[in-house]
Amino acid sequence: MKNLYKNLSQPFPEEAIERTKGSVTKKGYDTTGIKYQYVVNRFNEVLGIGSFRVDRQYNINEKTSRNGRTMYECCCDLTLFLGKWSEGEFIPFAEAVSTGGHISTNIADAKKGAFTNGFKKAAAFLGCGWQAYAGVIDDDNIPWTEPQSSPTPQVPWSNNNKQPKQKKQPAKGRITHAQLGKLRQLVDQLGGEWKDFKTYVNQRFNKQLQYLNKREASDIIGELIDKERRVG
Amino acid sequence: MADIINFPVEEKIHISASAVNKLHGCMRDYYYKYVAGIPRESTPDAMLLGIALHRALSYFYLVLKQDKEECSLEVLQEVVNGKIEDEELQKEATRLLELFLKDGFKPDPEQIVAVEQKFELPLHDPETGELLSTVVGYWDLITRNKDESLTITDHKIVKRNNKAKAEAPDLQMALYSWATKNNFGAEKVNLQYQDIIRNKTAKHDIKQITRQDPQKEEADALTQLRSANNLISVLVAQDNVKELMFPNKSWRCKNCTYREICQSE
Questions:
Q1: Considering only CA atoms, which of B211, B176, B208, B181 is closest in space to residue B192?
Q2: Which fold would CATH assign to domain A2-166?
């Protein structure tokens, strides 16, 4: 089992990594992730074909974009099983539960995006692609596109026509207790590990969480709120 | 947001006397330890010895309080040896423990109130009442006197006998006094150092700390803490926080636990 984990958690080649810019995905932040097919290939190569299966459940909500277009927000709860077939029956020896989310103008893309998003996270629980996840995960990074005629909305799932004000928090001062509390609450709601989140912050900002400035704290709170909205 | 107070201290915005002293000594040292959270490259022998002897003394006072008897040298050696592997350092520890067992401060077991106890208290802005930070520290030993006053004893493992140290106000001890009044409701708090001096002959000394105006000393200590907290707050708001927290090149550098990383930058 130890060897299996070692093999699954090996680093991926550069071509397997996809990076997106927040300005393109309209999420307001950049992401780094492992391409879905490379994760699937890793399972097939390490475990053999047919040695994993996924149970999934979708939940789809309709939203209206800023310019009145219908959007589909999909949430996918899934369980990834690793196992072997024996006498026509799949016998699992490991499992990971995860949730993925995606928004698109059509249901199929929303479902595909939500599934791959959740699948990659579940795979990371088993060591495969863990490198992409350091507490605040997001590699649901396929930018959705609207027809050329309509301007790209900043908040696609907004229910009203008002553009929300992007208030930039000044860097003035150190993270507040209120911000620290909010972060803890959000990480908890997203099912993340506080310890992992602190490590992520340290790696991203080169400083410990309690030494972030107010703007950095505000930015990361915004990202988590955004993510929470998507996951539902 | 009140539940932030119940977070483990390492997750809170917190400050301590040793952090403030580090900030005064060398800002880059502070940066490495507290802001960036970089683990120490190495632990100097003197620090290791100090940690091990503090552990042994804590053990001694806990046994004295709970079992009302004194530990043997062998037991304390075992406590020390759990922390120190180097034989020379173990010998040095034994020499100092023998001295402590012979001359050390030994209160009546009934007098012992707290041994190696942590405190956490909120630090507020006196004008706005805003919660600025959490003050944390450890009391080495607190004992109750016959007149109901409390005495804080801080163990120091030192190389030289610095008699003047007890005559000037000290941030750490003033803070500990404030915390003791808050946590134990004591009206009067006495302060003393238990010095174990590592010179040729080894010497033990109890130094009563002279207190001219305890209330002012405590208020000054809190002001220092607030100032340090504000300074850090301003510094971390800058993009080039590391450059702003510049190294203070001094004789301390040769024993600094971040010497290599500091020199390489």
A1: B208
A2: Enolase-like; domain 1 (3.30.390)
